[in-house]
Amino acid sequence: MKKVLILGVNGFIGHHLSKRILETTDWHVYGMDMQNDRLGDLVNHPRMHFFEGDITINKEWVEYHIRKCDVILPLVAIATPATYVQQPLKVFELDFEANLPIVRSAVKYKKHLVFPSTSEVYGMCEDSEFDPAKSNMVYGPINKPRWIYACSKQLMDRVIWGYGMEGLRFTLFRPFNWIGPGLDSIYTPKEGSSRVVTQFLGHIVRGESINVVDGGAQKRAFTYVDDGIDALMRIIDNKDGVANGKIYNIGNPKNNHSIRELANQMLEIARSIPEYAKTANEVKIVETTSGAYYGEGYQDVQNRVPAIDNTMSELGWKPTTTMSDALKNIFEAYREDVEKARTLVDKE
Known about the structure:
Elements: E1 3-7, H1 12-24, E2 28-33, E3 48-52, H2 59-68, E4 71-74, H3 81-86, H4 88-97, H5 100-108, E5 112-116, H6 148-165, E6 169-175, E7 178-179, H7 195-206, E8 210-213, E9 219-221, E10 223-224, H8 225-237, E11 246-250, E12 256-258, H9 259-271, H10 274-280, E13 285-288, H11 290-293, H12 309-315, H13 323-335, H14 338-341
Parallel strand pairs: 1-2, 1-4, 2-3, 4-5, 5-6, 6-11, 7-10, 8-13
Antiparallel strand pairs: 9-12
Helix pairs in contact: 1-8, 4-6, 7-9, 9-13
């Protein structure tokens, strides 16, 4: 019976992971977050131990529970491009500085640290697929603060790897644009989800124009959250220690689509569903520049496809959800409460 500590338990990955753990295992979840709205009835589950708190304030609670639990998942992070450009220090302070003591406590108490790296660490790598063991990490100049998130995450990956050389049991996982129900709003720091899907859904239900940046030709490999959670569960289970000292891309190379294609797919689905059709028919796709949309400190990545060979072979996992089914599931999740979807983030 594992005890799993999830910091950022109310976030996109956190609440989906908690639900899966409580439904399919006998494990206990110890979770901290500043809110619990996405957890719903899970907070009353006998194996869910929720604490409302902040990792930067409630440090004694965090350390006590790292000592108490078997597997540590620090999922608290800011991962929105607009914030990288406008408030880079805030990104560094939370994503690196606030997480470093958690990593060190995992070292101190000899726990299995399962840390969320990011597909962003590969930066503007030109490989056709990003390989965790071989691909170079390529970032722009210092006057492009967009890269502070990737740099912060990469530095943490290297620190964790260094601790691994001294005995830390760790697994780094890199989510590639996970999407699904329970998308975050602008008010919540989030990890691992694709903010662009949230943004487009908000525009569609409000009948607003969808902005595609620099033509929308840049591609992303989108991954349905259930597939991602499947892989994460296998990492936490860590049968025969298979995940120790490993780095796993968790993504779906088959769901590689441009941002413009994403917008068109979402509009097509919305127009076929009565609850969304009226406002969807008012939406136009308009082009804008990255400078106008994010600010001058932005640079984009044209291609981001994961190499997942080791993830599949070592974990016995593969992604199965098509792009069409993933998007339909998201629309279905908000179908009964379109008003709730209208409050979704309106700027990435």
